């Protein structure tokens, strides 16, 4: 008797629900006056704390140990920081037909953000891909993105209104790079503490991001930015993002096949090379865009949920592929609880 397949459940990320709730709170009760100043100061401190914890959590040595599989990592980095931005630049022709200029800026910014760590590992494991390579690829992308994403944003967005300015480079160094490097330097002393309390610190990570989102969207509401976005424009953004995700999923899979990677490595390349990190992108946008961050992060928030839902279906189908029976079994923990929410860089 033929066994019936279990229906694929699309993951609705609880954290995205919290993010949307935070957006709603900012829309109804935006921070004004003194409250806005306090919120902005707290948001700045939260971003610095986020990147300090990223530095303390990320094991550079373990990431460098993965250089033995350098072809895979170069391929993932090329997808993340080369092909994605090229597609983002190509979408410039959709302004103003489908996208407004601010929404296009947000779309281009999302193409510059590093890949995820946790969700790439989870879906690679479910699909029976190369999990160790996924860990290293995610770590490499996060490490490179600390420097490359702000620089690409300064080059590609610096010439247009609302994009990064020269002052942003100073903020990048002070709010992103310095805390991250401090975390890396202090990792040998505090790494054990961070590992033992990673669950509690995970709440600190996510709470900090919620604060950044509230501050950014409050500024947008106070300045009347949201009156410039119509439902038709949002629909156009969703269509463009769906096409972008589909193109990247196809390119990563068939491109890796053309480069003669094995099945397990192709799975890793597809999931690590087609994703964008919400946890890394939101605080970066807060630093780079300031008062314009609310529209800049909207495309990233929508893309994040879209990639989770689509990749959940793909991962399950890859796991049911007869060819997957020849590869190593997926991790039981990851399969049972994939936790596709990206919580930022973590050690392997």
What layout of secondary structure does this protein have?
Layout: H1 14-28, H2 33-57, H3 60-65, H4 70-90, H5 101-110, H6 118-126, H7 131-157, H8 166-196, H9 198-222, H10 231-258, H11 263-273, H12 278-289, H13 293-320, H14 332-336
Region (Disordered): 322-348
Transmembrane segments: 12-32, 38-58, 70-91, 103-123, 135-157, 169-186, 207-226, 232-256, 277-302
Protein name: Bile acid:sodium symporter
Summed over residues and divided by their number, the pLDDT gives a mean of 82
- Describe the oligomeric state of these chains in a short phrase: single chain
CATH topology: Na+/H+ antiporter like fold
Q: Which stretches are low in confidence, meaning pLDDT under 50 for 5 or more residues running?
A: 327-341, 343-348
Continuous helix count: 14
CATH top level assignment: Mainly Alpha
Protein name: Bile acid:sodium symporter
Pfam families: SBF_like (PF13593)
Keywords: Membrane, Transmembrane, Transmembrane helix
InterPro entries: Na+/solute_symporter_sf (IPR038770), Put_Na-Bile_cotransptr (IPR016833)
């Amino acid at each position: 008797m033929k066994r019936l397949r279990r229906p694929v459940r699309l993951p609705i990320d609880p954290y995205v629900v919290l993010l949307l709730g935070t957006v709603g709170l900012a829309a109804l009760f935006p921070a004004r006056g003194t409250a806005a100043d306090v919120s902005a100061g707290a948001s700045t401190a939260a971003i610095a704390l986020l990147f300090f914890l990223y530095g303390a959590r990320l094991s550079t040595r373990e990431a460098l140990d993965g250089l033995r599989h350098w072809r895979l990592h170069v391929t993932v980095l090329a997808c993340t920081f080369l092909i994605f931005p090229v597609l983002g630049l190509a979408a410039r022709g959709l302004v103003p037909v489908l996208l407004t200029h601010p929404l296009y800026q947000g779309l281009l910014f999302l193409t510059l953000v590093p890949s995820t760590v946790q969700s790439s590992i989870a879906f690679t494991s479910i699909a029976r891909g190369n999990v160790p390579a996924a860990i290293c690829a995610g770590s490499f992308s996060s490490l490179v993105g600390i420097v490359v994403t702000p620089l690409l944003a300064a080059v590609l967005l610096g010439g247009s209104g609302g994009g990064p300015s020269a002052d942003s480079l100073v903020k990048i160094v002070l709010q992103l790079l310095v805390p991250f490097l401090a975390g890396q330097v202090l990792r040998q002393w505090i790494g054990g503490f961070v590992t033992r309390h990673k669950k509690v610190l995970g709440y600190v990570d996510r709470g900090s991001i919620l604060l950044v989102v509230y501050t950014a969207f409050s500024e947008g509401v106070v300045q009347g930015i949201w009156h410039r976005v119509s439902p038709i424009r949002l629909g156009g953004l969703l269509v463009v993002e769906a096409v972008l995700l589909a193109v990247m999923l196809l390119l990563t899979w068939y491109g890796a096949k053309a480069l003669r990677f094995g099945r397990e490595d192709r799975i890793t390349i597809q999931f690590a090379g087609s994703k964008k990190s919400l946890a890394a992108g939101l605080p970066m946008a807060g630093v780079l865009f300031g008062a314009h961050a609310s529209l800049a992060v909207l495309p990233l928030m929508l893309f994040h949920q879209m990639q989770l839902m689509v990749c959940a279906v793909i991962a399950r189908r890859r796991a049911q592929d007869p060819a997957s029976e020849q590869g190593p079994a997926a991790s039981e923990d990851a399969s049972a609880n994939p936790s596709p929410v990206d919580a930022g860089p973590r050690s392997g």
